[in-house]
Request: fold
Amino acid sequence: MTEKPADEATSGRERTLDAAESCLQRFGLAKTTIEDVAQASALSRATIYRQFGNRDGLLLALATRDAERTAADAEFFLQQFDDVGSWIIEGMMFCLREIPKRPVLSQFLAPQELGAASRMLLTSDRMLAIGAEILRPMFEPARREGLLQRDLELDSLIEWVLRILMSFLAVSGPPSRTEEDLRELLRAMLLPAVLVGGGRSSPIA
Reply:
């Protein structure tokens, strides 16, 4: 059987993902099915199974696409900061502000979906790799300059940060807590665990 050209295969996947995103907005994460996506994309269920393996594979690919777009926006946003501590804290704040606005990630990280969705996201090598793509540029200079806590593993840090984000997204905290209060909480609790000296004025190389 002749294989489809790579660009044609990619466009076919994107068509399916666009249809899946539409279904997610209409039906929610728990109720979206392969049948729904097949009808929305005018593709057969067999085609979608060949593309993504199963429903979880399709939904994970959809979350990955939205996460990659969010990561690109976060990296652009963080260019205005020039020290490691600000990159970490403002990166977290960006995610906490922006993820609830994102068409797919907001569905995955909604409180009622968080149990099943978090198991899917935290066991995905690709989602962890996206986290690494965001975090590595800010942490590698700190590692070279000796600013990271000794024996801190980047992969473990990424998983830890993702878990913290999921926790705050699921339960925002006291209604009286302002954005600045949350920023200071993250500075007090997160930076000392990651950076020598708390990272308040550690420049990015």
Summary: The chain has eleven helices and no strands. Residues 59-199 form a domain with the Tetracycline Repressor; domain 2 fold (CATH 1.10.357).
